[in-house]
Write a structure and sequence with these properties.
- The structure holds three protein chains of three kinds.
- By secondary structure, chain A is mainly alpha-helical.
- Chain A has helices at 3-26, 30-55, 58-83, 98-115, 117-122, 126-129, 131-147, 151-172, 178-206.
- Helices cover 79% and strands 0% of the residues of chain A.
- The longest helix of chain A has 29 residues, at 178-206.
- Chain A is globular and about 55 Å long.
- In chain A, 41% of the residues are buried.
- Helix content of chain B is 70%, strand content 5%.
- By secondary structure, chain B is mainly alpha-helical.
- Chain B has helices at 2-11, 21-41, 44-72, 94-121, 125-140, 147-165, 172-203, 208-212, 218-236, 244-251, 254-279, 285-307, 312-339, 343-378, 389-392, 394-408, 416-427, 435-467, 474-477, 484-502, 508-522, 548-566, 570-573, 597-600, 602-607, 609-612, 642-663, 670-687; strands spanning 74-79, 88-92, 532-533, 537-538, 545-546, 577-579, 615-622, 630-638.
- The two termini of chain B are 44 Å apart.
- In chain B, strand 4 and strand 5 (545-546) form a beta hairpin.
- By secondary structure, chain C is an all-alpha fold.
- In chain C, helix 7 packs antiparallel against helix 9.
- Chain C is globular and about 55 Å long.
- Classes of the chains: A mainly alpha, B mainly alpha, C mainly alpha.
- At the B-C interface, helix 17, helix 18, strand 5, helix 22 and helix 23 of B face strand 1, helix 3, helix 4, helix 5 and helix 9 of C.
Chain lengths: 219, 689, 323
């Protein structure tokens, strides 16, 4: 693959990743969130495919295809299945309103760039130049986990967090072996399944999944 | 195991095809793992026998391992596959061999004993399977030659022992004891981990060989010393880290108590010897002084608690703590004397410490096995309810008598020679040793003497009240002698006690090289000889000698002479006539008129009231008609562990109070919890940039 | 066998015999002194001998419910004292058993005898037996620190705890006995001897009230030959300890390595004189003393412990410049 195409493709996928993250924070409709999640998964999958095509590494391309299937199709599909049972498919008022959330995302992106400067200076390749974006996605995912009220939103935030971690792994390491990716993905799949079951139980027991109503988790 | 094979090939001399130590170690590990699995497979009826026999077999292999190490050494063997990241390194010297042989010998007796005991007590399969694993990990700990190997084996020993302590977990007191034991063992492990990790980091290597030759700054050495003394001291049962001993030993089944008291606490001493004396090298005088003080306080406090304890196994547990205190005192004296230049006397103290370890293993095993027989036959552990067992269980009573004699440190007992060596090392302080030595040694002698006196009181109480006179309860009166396997198991440590009492030379091959290694530390070039333990014990460089064997012979001759005098007249030679005992004219004696263990120890309890702080509750009910007439009086006294009640309970209360304050941060909101996590992550990112 | 060892062996045999034969005489003399001081006629110096002979001729009694421990304890007690009599320098400082047992071994044997009697007391299963055993063991345990510290103090000038070495050093350097450390050690050892032999003010050997007995309570159930052994052993214990006390601090006249048979005879005579003097002093003092309450005894023993500790520390700080 020609270098320019390679760099463009890499930057485009990382940019798409970040854009999806911002949109996930902006939109409140849960169904839209799921669709954005699958787009983000597609953007994520493009990173290892690009890297694999550039380095002529078949295994990396195969991993990329696996990531595509998992994070763009299976995981959003599972979350969508849960949403079908939701009575109110819209996020209630989050802890921070939308403008404040977007400002926070901007601040976190700046922080991500500041934090990852040593990583970039250590090995300045096109891949590592995109690493700050991956770190920013991680931080945004954590932010979403902390500030959303509905359990489903928190699941989406968790998946975005994991997308960011996977992107960071692909960008900064010399390649993620199939075994590691498989293991990590299995973890995530299991987590989501558990969350699905738990949401179902929560809905049955409490008639909704608003986490602010659950305050018994203490001594 | 290519590493093992290459080590074998490199060391075996041409034409010499004998068994080498690493092979024995490998066989030991394999046999213990196999028997663990085997126990779980066989039918319930055979489980106890399989577990006991395999434990005894593992013990025998441990003795072989020690013997082959003494004969041909155990060079470092590296097994990279056992632990990820760091690999494991095994290696040992004479000190390792000494501890492993002691462990193995105790395991043979305890294992054989548990064949009959476990069958009677119906112990669960998990405990029976853990028994051989416990013995093998104890046997291999002295052969760990790197920090990660040591910690791996130490923790596996701790976990196996926890499973065994909780063997009879249907009783609430056993569960509580298990919790206390688990917490204290893990805290001790944390301290050892901390100390060894600091050591390895400062020495830039984790193998013991490299660590012993590293030059560390003085402050680091001091910190490592204190932290490892805390960790190893808690395993050895030194005050104030001892409260787990009086809880765990009575809760565990008797063969396990024997293993814990006579083999596991030794490994605390092993840690002190290996890490603090050998690896850290000769240190400043305050190290020896610290060990001396800790040992003296432990010995006196523990024997005091033993003298007022009425539970037989709790008494023996405190006696273990006392003996470990004496050994630590001897180690401290050896370090102190070595630091002040009197090498010959330091060697005597070191010999005393190691010999006392061996003697203690012999008589404590025997005592716990005999106590196990009593518990098995009567179901009762309380001395106030025992008694009169000498008629129904003559063999067990004799065995306990031999063990009690050893524990008192009197002549003809197993503990006399080591106590004599210790006292000799303490009284031969050099006049130029400085004020510290001049003040510490007399106080140490006083502590040892008080310990010896109280130990005599304790053992007279245990043997006299528990086994002599008449039974104080129905359970004791229906006792019968235990099964032949249990009796045979008690014979091995009994023979060891008898031999060690009169011929300590059998322990000389074990001690010679171990003490020699200590001598090399202080004077690499000088030739200092160990005390000779032949027929006449001689102390090189000191005027002092004693012969336990000849003493025993003269004593026996004197007793025969006295008996001859009493039989000199015709009337004395006839069969004795049975007569009634004096009951102050009130008719027949009842068992209730006898002294109990509590009443026997009451004068001591009064004298040491401030240290023991008994809990006394007197409830007087007066007559309805008049306050001057008493209808009934209820008296209840209990003596708990004073350190536990006055140090640990307030500490735990303080921790709980602090935890309640922190609890306010648990608002119940999921968002708050996630927020804490995120904040932590941000802080970490910023700080660790 | 060399000449010195032969003389030493003969000396050891002579001293065992002297102690065995002389102990009842000593006890009789002490009782006679007390009797005279109290204004009584007394039973005569030979009375203990007559009592022992009578007891040995009586039949043996076995109280019901007792075990072999009760039956064997008198012989064990007497055996320990006879063994001590052979080791300790009574007549000669050159006993062949001197290297077999040092002062620590002697103390251990004494304690072994006390333990045997205490176990016998517990074995009877009576309240008095238990009481006597409990008290005797408490006192023995509390006097241990004093004993060992006194031995420590004595061993400092001789650099050894073997009795022959201590006595020979004291004989060769009489000045070492006149130090304050030695005086304190002597005071401590006097209290030790009183505690170990059960004399006033710690125990009253002539009491008839069971509640005030310590040593007597353990022997309440003994009769016949066994009682003879017990009584004889306690008399021998007193004799041996008084002889030891005398020879440790005033070894004048004791037979040493280079004394011949004349030295032995001289040693016997001298020790008889020394022990008699000490016994008369002890008996006389007892007339003017009352027995201490049992729970005041630990205070006395703590005081003797402090004396012993002072003896040791003083001997360090005073010998340091010289050595």
């Amino acid at each position: 693959m020609r270098t320019l195409t390679y760099v463009t493709a890499l930057d485009a996928s990382a940019g798409a990743l970040m854009l999806c993250a911002v949109l996930l924070v902006w939109r409140r409709d849960l169904a839209a969130l799921v669709r954005l999640l699958s787009v983000q998964g597609l953007a994520l999958a493009l990173i290892p495919i690009t890297l694999g095509a550039h380095q002529r590494d078949g295994e990396l391309v195969a991993v990329g295809i696996g990531v595509l299937v998992l994070r763009a199709a299976i995981l959003p599909g599972v979350v969508a299945r849960v949403l079908r049972g939701e009575p109110r498919p819209r996020e209630t008022q989050p802890l921070l309103n939308t403008s404040a959330s977007l400002l926070a995302v901007a601040a976190l992106t700046v922080l991500a760039y500041a934090v990852s400067r040593p990583v970039v200076t250590l090995d300045p390749t096109p891949a590592t130049h995109a690493a700050p974006l991956a770190i920013a996605v991680v931080l945004v995912g954590i932010f979403m986990l902390v500030t959303r009220r509905r359990a489903m939103s928190q699941v989406v935030g968790f998946l975005m967090l994991d997308n960011g971690i996977a992107a960071l792994a692909f960008l900064t390491t010399a390649g993620v072996p199939m075994v590691v990716e498989l293991g990590a993905s299995l973890d995530v799949l299991l987590a989501v399944l558990v969350l699905q079951i738990l949401s179902g139980r929560m809905r049955v027991k409490f008639g909704g999944t608003d986490l602010d109503e659950l305050r018994e988790l203490r001594d | 195991m290519s590493a093992v094979a290459s080590a074998n090939r490199s060391r075996a001399s041409p034409g010499h095809r004998s068994v080498t130590a690493p092979t024995v170690a490998a066989v030991l590990a394999v046999v213990s793992l196999a028997s663990c699995g085997f126990v779980l497979i066989v039918p319930v009826r055979a489980r106890a026998a399989v577990s006991g026999i395999s434990t005894a077999l593992v013990g025998a292999l441990a003795v072989c391992l020690g013997a082959t190490t003494l004969a041909s050494g155990f060079g470092p063997v590296r097994l990279g596959w056992l632990l990820p990241l760091s690999g494991t390194v095994f290696g040992g010297d004479a000190t390792s061999a000494l501890f492993t042989i002691v462990t193995g010998a105790v395991a043979i007796a305890a294992g054989w004993f548990s064949i009959g005991y476990s069958r009677n007590a119906c112990l669960p399969a998990a405990a029976l399977a853990a028994l051989p694993l416990f013995v093998s990990s104890m046997a291999l700990v002295p052969f760990a030659a790197s920090v990660s190997t040591f910690l791996l084996l130490w923790e596996s020993m701790a976990l196996a022992s926890l499973v065994l302590v909780l063997a009879e977990h249907h009783e609430r007191s056993t569960r509580e004891a298990g919790v206390i034991y688990a917490v204290m063992t893990e805290l001790g492990f944390a301290a050892i981990l901390l100390g060894l990790v600091i050591f390895a980091a400062s020495a830039h290597s984790e193998t013991f060989a490299a660590m012993s030759s590293a030059q560390l700054p003085g402050a680091a050495r001091g910190v490592i010393f204190v932290v490892t003394v805390v960790g190893f001291g808690s395993k050895a049962g030194l005050v104030p880290l001892h409260p787990w001993l009086p809880h765990a030993h009575p809760a565990a089944p008797s063969p396990v108590s024997a293993l814990m008291s006579a083999a596991m606490v030794n490994l605390g001493i092993y840690g002190l010897v290996r890490v603090d004396i050998q690896l850290l090298g000769p240190g400043p005088a305050w190290w020896g002084l610290l060990l001396l003080i800790v040992g003296a306080v432990t010995a006196v406090y523990a024997v005091l608690q033993a003298s007022v304890a009425t539970d037989l196994k709790r008494l023996l547990a405190y006696s273990t703590s006392e003996n470990m205190g004496l050994i630590t005192l001897a180690l401290g004296a050896a370090m102190l004397l070595g630091a002040s230049g009197s090498r010959a006397v330091a060697l005597v103290a070191m010999t005393a410490a190691l010999l006392h370890l061996i003697n203690h293993a012999a008589f404590k095993t025997l005592a716990f096995l005999a106590a196990g027989s009593v518990v098995s036959a009567t179901g009762v552990r309380d001395l106030d309810e025992l008694g009169g067992l000498a008629g129904a269980m003559p063999v067990t009573s004799t065995m306990f008598g031999v063990a009690a004699l050893g524990a008192t440190g009197l002549p003809l007992g197993a503990g006399f020679v080591s106590e004599w060596l210790l006292l000799q090392s303490l009284i031969h302080t050099p006049p130029a040793g400085g004020t510290t030595l001049a003040l510490a040694m007399p106080l140490a002698v006083g502590a040892v003497a008080l310990t010896a006196g109280l130990a005599v009181a304790t053992m007279v109480k245990a043997f006299g009240i528990g086994f002599l006179a008449r039974p104080r309860s129905a359970a004791a009166s229906t006792a019968r002698e235990v099964s032949p396997t249990m009796v045979v198991a008690m014979l091995l440590p009994a023979v060891a006690c008898a031999v060690l009492a009169v011929a300590p030379i059998v322990a000389a091959p074990l001690l010679r090289d171990a003490v020699g290694e200590f001598a090399k530390l202080n004077a690499p070039a000088g030739a200092s000889a160990m005390p000779s333990l032949g027929l006449l014990l001689r102390l090189p460089g000191i005027i002092g000698s004693m012969s336990p064997a000849l003493l025993a012979i003269s004593f026996v001759v004197a007793v025969l002479l006295a008996t001859g005098v009493s039989y000199s007249k015709q009337a004395g030679r006839r069969r004795p006539r049975t007569a009634q005992l004096w009951a102050s004219g009130s008719g027949r004696l009842t068992p209730r008129m006898q002294y109990t263990a509590t009443s026997f120890a009451e004068p001591l309890q009064r004298v040491f009231d401030d240290i023991l702080r008994p809990d006394i509750d007197i409830d007087v009910t007066h007559h309805a008609e008049s306050r001057y007439l008493v209808e009934k009086v209820r008296y209840q006294a209990s003596i708990g562990d004073a350190v536990e009640a006055h140090v640990y309970v307030p500490l735990l209360r303080g921790l709980t109070r602090w935890a309640n304050v922190v609890r306010r941060a648990h608002a119940g909101s999921v968002h708050a919890y996630l927020g804490y996590g995120a904040a932590g992550l941000l802080v970490a990112l910023v700080v660790a940039r | 066998m060399s000449g010195a060892t032969a003389i030493g062996t003969v000396g050891a045999v002579v001293q065992v015999g002297a102690v065995a034969v002389g102990a009842p005489l000593l006890a009789g003399m002490m009782r006679q002194v007390r009797a005279r001081l109290e204004g009584r006629r007394g039973a005569g110096v030979l009375q203990p001998w007559r009592d022992l002979r009578k007891l040995v001729g009586k039949e043996r009694i076995r109280p019901e419910g007792t075990t072999v421990v009760f039956a064997a304890a008198p012989a064990v007690l007497a055996g320990t004292v006879l063994a001590i009599a052979a080791i300790v320098p009574v007549v000669t400082a050159n006993s062949p058993l001197d290297s077999v047992g040092d002062l620590f071994a002697v103390v251990g044997l004494l304690l072994l005898g006390t333990v045997a009697l205490a176990l016998a007391g517990l074995d009877t299963g009576t309240a008095f037996g238990g009481m006597g055993a409990s008290r005797a063991i408490t006192i023995a345990a509390l006097v241990e620190p004093t004993v060992l510290l006194a031995i420590f103090a004595l061993s400092v000038p001789a650099h050894s705890s073997n009795l022959g070495a201590i006595v020979t050093t004291a004989a060769v350097h009489p000045g070492s006995v006149a130090t304050p450390a030695a005086a304190l050690a002597f005071a401590a050892l006097c209290i030790v001897v009183i505690a170990e032999t059960g004399r006033l003010p710690i125990d009253n050997p002539t009491t008839h009230l069971e509640l005030t007995m310590i040593h007597e309570a353990s022997t309440l159930e003994y009769a016949g030959p066994q009682l003879a052994l017990v009584e004889w052993a306690s008399m021998m214990r007193l004799t041996v300890l008084l002889a030891l006390l005398a020879n440790l601090f005033l070894p004048l006249g004791i037979a040493t390595v280079d004394s011949g048979v004349a030295g032995l005879v001289g040693g016997v005579v001298v020790v008889i004189v020394k022990v008699t003097v000490l016994a008369i002093v002890l008996a006389g003092a007892e007339v003017f003393m009352a027995k201490l309450r049992l729970f005041r005894v630990p205070e006395l023993l703590a005081g003797s412990f402090v004396l012993g500790l002072l003896a040791v520390t003083i001997s360090y700080f005073l010998t340091t410049p010289a050595t």
